[in-house]
């Protein structure tokens, strides 16, 4: 079994035809499904939030069998993730893709859980503290993408569970929870 | 001797016929009794044998296969009924029915990957993985027996021979001779190219492409355009050793 660092690659990753978009519908569905799972699993394990379509993303090629995904194939797999609600194009040119191995709603739930566990209800924290503070160390929130975090916080704000405000002294924005 | 006409003569002839019939019946009865006796002895011997080697039959696939062979030679099918003394004695029927269910399961769960055609070798390997906890080892012979029992269901489970390999088919696809020959060719490397098929079989290109297209449509083949020489390769998961993997992931 091939590995990427600590990540165990599935066996289909070593089978050349999986790198060519299959023309037959049923076969392609299966192929797309396997790739979707692989991209999500890998991004989750490696905490990768953004995939650049034209960049050297490790999953886009397998040097061992000398195969790499065509542009068309990359777009096909990412688009499939997008239609599942597990990814979004960040830019208009569709060159960068945000991968949501947790949906925004799930991230929001994780934040609420984090707040409860640390007794931060009715407290004020900065956005950076959520991403890299000592409390978040060891949780899934640690090192999470700022865009995704903001989206989750906005969702919670919309539900009236917190308020986001601009700090007066620092550049960073603050969050006041009211769970 | 002068023939004696009249009622007396007819009666005599009838009496003689009766005598012959009686004698004949006696002989037949004797023979049947003898036969029955032999059968009873044979059966009890076979039972004794089965009882004595019960553990071997259960645990040792090679021994089991020989036992089946012996039974086949004398016209006994231990799997014919689940109610017979064989089932009570050996539990052998249940063993094969259990295998059958697991085989169906494996065939279904790998179908998306291999199009419903799997090599017997792979099937056995997956079966072994699934039955890790079970006491009895499973041989290819056991697989074949279990599959032959599945035919009763009419679901189109069939074992086909392609070249040196045996493939188990779980979809009602009809493979013609051309398809079989392509599969055989693919066994060497796991894939073929159109050129290769044309060259090896001296077919016109249309014939090769037609056959390959059918195999693609059936989900038995996958295309690969990534090779450096630019020639499209047709891969066959059912003959590549990799075929177990994608299936195994989802098992």
UniProtKB/TrEMBL annotation, chain A:
InterPro entries: ESCRT-II_cplx_Vps25-sub, ESCRT-II_cplx_Vps25-sub_N, WH-like_DNA-bd_sf, WH_DNA-bd_sf. Coiled coil: none annotated. The keyword Transport applies. Keywords: Protein transport, Transport. One of its GO terms (biological process) is protein transport. Belongs to the VPS25 family. This is ESCRT-II complex subunit VPS25.
TrEMBL record, chain B:
One of its GO terms (cellular component) is ESCRT II complex. Keywords: Protein transport, Transport. It comes from the Eukaryota. GO terms for biological process: multivesicular body sorting pathway; protein transport. Component of the endosomal sorting complex required for transport II (ESCRT-II), which is required for multivesicular body (MVB) formation and sorting of endosomal cargo proteins into MVBs. Belongs to the SNF8 family. Component of the endosomal sorting complex required for transport II (ESCRT-II). This is Vacuolar protein sorting-associated protein.
